[in-house]
Amino acid sequence: MNIYEAIKDFKDDAENNRADLDLEFAKKNEQIAKWLTKLKEYEDLEEQGKILRLPFKVGDKVYLISDGFVENCTVETIYLADYTDKNKNKSYMAEIHFDREDCPFVSTEIYFTDIGKTVFLTKSEAEAKLKNCEVLLSDKHTNADRIRNMSDEELIEFIQEMESTCFVDFIGYVDKDCGQGKISCKDCRAKAPTILEWLQSEAE
Predict the structure, then answer these.
(1) Distance CA 79, CA 75 (A)
(2) pLDDT tens by residue, 174-185
(3) Residue 110: Cβ within 10 Å count
């Protein structure tokens, strides 16, 4: 049975109920038929791509990580246009205001692409993310760690720079006399860390 058949069955049952003067069941079956009809309308709109699913609505609470704190905020306005975030991704935006007595009129704009990164739908998620960031900041980060944490775009840029630059120059250990005919590339490289040493050294 599909939803069309279900709607028809409940409508037929309602008519039969009314014929039998069973008005209570008639009303119940008519109500179910209305609910199913409304549900089918939404299904049709979804199949046509006409339903927009938003992570929150105006008035909802969200939680923003800002300056090492989790700020309780309220969604004030939602902007449904093709904005471009800092990573060049298309995104909707929203304006949120801080729920703080000491700055009741402070607001900021966020991208939907910030959700799960600096903006969260629950306080527990925001606190967990902040705690994880604090742990990462407290640990020593090596160059290898920095490379592992790169986005695809950052990694592409990193590889391209390495391909076009001498490794010793790339890591900042090139001798001032290199390229002046006073020192060979071999001697210059001998004074620099090995690739493994550089990967295991603390990132700047």
Answers:
(1) 11
(2) 666 665 556 666
(3) 21
Predicted confidence at residue 136, as pLDDT, reads 53
Our measurement of the distance from residue 83's CA atom to the centroid of its chain's CA atoms, rounded to an integer in Å, reads 15
Measured CA distances, 135 to 2, 63, 178, 182, 203 (Å): 53, 20, 41, 46, 16
Give the containing element (helix H, strand E) for 45.
helix 23-47
pLDDT tens per residue, range 122-172: 999 999 888 877 655 555 678 888 888 888 888 888 888 878 777 777 777
- Residues 111, 114, 116, 118: is their CA dihedral positive or negative? negative
Query: What end-to-end distance do the CA atoms of the chain give, in Å?
Result: 65
**Tens digit of pLDDT for each residue in 30-45?**
999 899 898 888 888 7
Measured CA to CA, the distance from residue 23 to residue 116 in angstroms comes to: 51
| The residue count for the chain | 204
For residues 105 and 45, give the distance between their C-alpha atoms in angstroms, rounded to a whole number. Answer: 39
CA distances (Å), origin 38, targets 3, 14, 35, 43: 11, 17, 5, 9
Q: Phi-psi region for residue 49, left (φ > 0), alpha (ψ -120 to 50) or beta? A: left
- b/e per residue 2-32 (b: at least 16 CB within 10 A): eeeeebeebbebbeebeeeeeeeebeebbeb
